[in-house]
Design a protein that fits this description.
Keywords: Oxidoreductase. One of its GO terms (cellular component) is cytoplasm. This is Aldedh domain-containing protein. The protein is an alpha/beta fold. The chain has two domains: 12-140 and 338-360, 3-Layer(aba) Sandwich (Aldehyde Dehydrogenase, Chain A, domain 1), CATH 3.40.605.10; 144-326, Aldehyde Dehydrogenase, Chain A, domain 2 (3-Layer(aba) Sandwich), CATH 3.40.309. 34% of the residues lie in helices and 20% in strands. It contains eleven helices and 16 strands. Helix 6 (153-165) packs across helix 7 (185-200). The longest helix has 16 residues, at 185-200.
């Protein structure tokens, strides 16, 4: 886990590094940036506070946390617990909505880390620019999945189903859509049906393991996409229920111009887009914004290498989804529209510290020039 990895390695990461030199003593000294602002999202309101908080504290910074007001009960709990165990001079929590966040962003911080959507990310960057404050932005995006004909279908479907419908699709790294050939599509749909039944049973709405949409606004947003989509529904595990915030797992066959293919879905609808081959899949992915992650399922090493070499994304996982975030020694972050900067483990420590160049010279140098 991230906290154990940080605690085990922080002494090594923070060691002063001496660089070999013939006459002088050059060194690199790590120092904390100062005060870090962490603005966290609602979909994993504890995990996505702790993930950047641990390296920020390990690096020696003081921290201000702004939890999402969309998950108010968790935000209140975070404020209560941190106030119990930390003094406000070291770590403090500021709760509230957009107006409170706007006021908070007027203050000068030494680093801002924001997890959320691109429009708000632009607001964060604009505010940070007033103080020349560096930012780390994790902004999500449409994470594609390529399913090649040579894949192991039952495991492929099981892993996609887990990643897509965990937390009702409200995961920044969740598979957003699948690129698959016409011949492989029916096998994938059937295997996904079986995996959904395995995870949630035949009465999905009654399953204790199936989540709900965060609020009615997001329920309406996803429902509007479903109502305006021109795709063919291949599987639907029940009827929508706005009062219960329930949207069932849905698999839908779409064209490129479908409403579901425009923005990140952030919900339990999985569009399938038919492609001829890997070339077309790569071209399609590269025609859009760079996603936070991209996934491919194949037994071909050459296809996997082509995929991660010829596409650009924050990360790539081969033959699974999301799991790269569980590896403490890998960086987590986006590229392009999916974000900037990185954190987790040593990469988080690097983000929240400054490498200060130090040079020590003796008083004998000039005599050598005579």
């Amino acid at each position: 886990m991230s906290h154990k990895h940080n605690c085990t390695n922080v002494d090594t990461w923070s060691v002063q590094k001496t660089i070999a030199s013939a006459l002088d003593q050059p060194m690199i000294v790590r120092e904390p940036l100062g005060v870090v602002l962490i603005i966290s999202p609602w979909n994993y309101p504890i995990f996505l506070v702790m993930l950047p908080l641990i390296p920020a504290i390990a690096a020696g910074n003081t921290v201000v946390i702004k939890p999402s007001e969309i998950a108010p009960h968790t935000a209140a709990t975070i404020e209560k617990l941190f106030a119990k165990y930390f003094t406000p001079e070291f770590l403090t929590v500021v709760n509230g909505g957009p107006s409170e966040t706007t006021e908070l962003l007027k203050e000068r911080f030494d680093h801002i880390l924001y997890t959320g959507c691109p429009p708000i990310g632009k607001i964060i960057m604009t505010a940070a620019a007033e103080h020349l404050t560096p930012v780390t932005l994790e902004l999500g995006g449409k994470c594609p999945v390529v399913v090649e004909d040579d894949t192991v279908m039952d495991l492929t479907a099981r892993r996609i189903a887990w990643g897509k419908w965990a937390n009702c699709g409200q995961t920044c790294l969740a598979p957003d859509y699948v690129l698959v050939s016409e011949s492989t599509k029916p096998k994938l749909v059937e295997a996904l049906r079986q995996s959904i039944a395995e995870f949630y049973g035949n009465d999905i709405k009654s399953s204790k393991d199936y989540s709900r949409i965060i609020n009615k606004r997001h329920h309406d947003r996803i429902s509007s996409l479903l109502d305006s989509s021109r795709g063919t529904i291949l599987f639907q595990g029940g009827d929508r229920d706005r009062d219960d915030l329930f949207i069932p797992p849905i698999i839908i066959d779409v064209k490129r111009d479908d409403p579901f293919m425009k923005d990140e879905i952030f919900g339990p609808v999985l569009p399938l887009l038919t492609i001829r081959d890997l070339n077309e899949a790569i071209d399609y992915i590269n025609s859009g914004e760079k996603p936070l992650a991209a996934y491919i399922f194949t037994q071909s090493e050459s296809k996997a290498q082509r995929f991660y070499n010829e596409t650009s994304s924050g990360a790539v996982t081969i033959n699974d989804v999301i799991m790269h975030i569980t590896v403490d020694t890998l960086p987590f972050g986006g590229v392009g529209a999916s974000g900037m900067g990185r954190y987790r483990g040593k990469f988080g420590f690097d983000t929240f510290t400054h490498e200060k160049a130090v040079l020590k010279r003796g008083f004998f140098g000039e005599t050598l020039l005579k």
